[in-house]
# Entry
Amino acid sequence: MSVKQLQSELRSRNLSSAGLLEKSDFVDRLLEIESASWKSNPSQNSETFPSSKQSENAESSNWENVLKQLEAGNVKAAVKWFDAMKDSAVLSQWEQMIEGIWKAHSNGQTDDLEVALDYWDELENAGLRLESASTYNVLIAVLAKRKDPAVFDLFTVMLNDGIEPTLNTYVALVQFCHQSGDYSKMEGLRTLMQSQKHKLVPALMHELKKNPEEMQKALQTMNSVPGFAEFMKTKDFSKMKF
# Structure
């Protein structure tokens, strides 16, 4: 996935990540997502990747092998098995595959993250849209990790597809700003996070208990971003320790 590819995708949908963030139109989009009134195809998760076969004809043994290899952190083997069945894979299996690759990376079992972006490219080219926030978070984290400015273009696509950002979405985006030194989108992110504080605060408190070391490190990163320290210490976030 390249910057040009994502920008082309945005143009095809008549979108602009810069314009949306600057005008705070994302907040209006979030309200639309929460109301669940504009997501056009909630049953999309049952669709299959275009193929002459139907999803029910996919070899279950292939998928079992994919899951087994992902669990073991053997991404190359998992990719081999998945590629043998992807013509009949349902959307949820594509999403599980992408998320499994990131999990293996997080566990230090692979450095090959490009295949996750390649799979998203294939879905986009087939006209399918992801429905899982966690899968979008993986792709955003991959782009953020390599300091790719296309991360905000992907964020725009995520919102356009009716997927509500989560705590992990914002953590990855803020980390990108911190690591790349590009703070041009920070005001927009603060506005968005403020509009979702009723969900982000409980989520952060939960994650602090579940993964204290990881989340403390993320908070320290967020706290080091210009202008973000004051935001994180507002009344709504006053219970958090940095």
Observations:
- Residues 70 and 78 are 6 Å apart (CA to CA).
- The radius of gyration is 18 Å.
